[in-house]
Amino acid sequence: MASRPTYGITRIDQPEKKNHGFYVRITHKGKTKQKYFPDKSSGGKAKALKGAKLHRDDLVSKLPKYKQEAASRKKRRIKKSGVVGVTHVVSQSQKGKSYEYWQAAWLDDDDKRRTAKFSISRYGDKEALALAKKRRKKMGD
Fold this sequence. Notes:
The chain is 35% helix and 34% strand. By secondary structure, the protein is of the alpha+beta class.
């Protein structure tokens, strides 16, 4: 199962430091594996990218199946709410079931982050978004 072309890979270009290459970073259960592939010592930009992809694919192959599937899935376009603190979330259970909801987030009186989730399958997209915006407005004041 192939990963998305740039999953876990970032291009680094810092001409002032003569630093050009690809950085691989994969995180699972709070542990991060990372490695840098400089253009110069890799034999050029194309070879650095190839090395980074091989390393990334090796790391991903050692992850649980559900994480491998997430790495190969096309990234979804993020829906925008137009309201700060209201976000569209797609989460996936370990059994592979996908859940979509609109989430309102705010800080309570003790500066603790609080959230409220409104299921799209339960309310429909428009209603879930409206409920999240309403809760955010109410709690964010």
